[in-house]
Amino acid sequence: MIYLIMFIEFFKIGLFAIGGGLVTVPFLFDLSEKYGWFSKSELADMIAISESTPGPIGINMATFAGFNTSGILGAIVATIGLVLPSLIIIIIIAKMLNKYSCNIRVHNVLSGIRPTVLALILFSGLQISKIAISDNIEILFFFAILTMMRLWRKSPIFYLCLSAIIGVVLQL
Questions:
Q1: Which helix (H) or strand (E) holds 112?
Q2: Residue 22's closest CA among 60, 68, 66?
Q3: pLDDT tens digits for 30-73?
């Protein structure tokens, strides 16, 4: 029964997470409260791991959440549930794209969705910051990395590796 519930929940996330993987984070916060499959602290770890591993963050998080909840089968079910709506929608859109690409209503719908995607991403950032930044050293670390990113335009991989090393050394 858990696999059916997991599939349905991740299918809904996949259906409404328009705008990329970070948009899945508010839905995952909801899942953590609704089912208790993982804690908010574990969710913050999932986000960090998903951001630093290859592949789309949303799929990485679904796989990690499914595995954390129900092992390998849970990971497969959650991942398929998340990906399936996009696959269906892409097939439908590809068939209709030429016919409706210049339609003003389609353009207006997409323009209306953009601010919502931004709001979901900002909400995710605020929720993650509440969990990840809890004491003065972490606040200092956050602003130090943010300042370095603004001053020196290095690859995000550089900052991920640097942050991981500092986190291990300082035992954050």
A1: helix 104-132
A2: 60
A3: 888 888 888 888 888 888 887 777 778 888 888 888 998 899 99
Identity of residue 136: N
- pLDDT tens track for 95-131: 877 777 778 887 788 788 888 888 888 887 888 788 7
d(CA 122, CA 125) in angstroms, rounded, equals 5
Instruction: Write the Ramachandran bin of 103: left for phi over 0, alpha for psi from -120 to 50, otherwise beta.
Output: beta
Cα–Cα distance list, 98 to 65, 103, 109, 112 (Å):
37, 10, 17, 21
Sign of CA dihedral 84, 88, 91, 93: negative
From the list 1, 137, 10, 17, the residue with the least C-alpha distance to 82 is 10
* SS3 state at 161: helix
Q: Looking at residue 22, what DSSP letter applies?
A: G
Using CB atoms within 10 Å of the CB of residue 72, give its burial: 0 to 12 exposed, 13 to 18 middle, 19+ buried: exposed
The phi-psi region of residue 153 (left if phi > 0; otherwise alpha if psi is between -120 and 50; otherwise beta) is: beta
* Interior/surface letters 103-125, b for 16+ CB within 10 angstroms, e for the rest: eeeeeeeeeeeeeeeeebbeebe
**Distance, CA of 63 to CA of 82 (rounded, Å):** 9
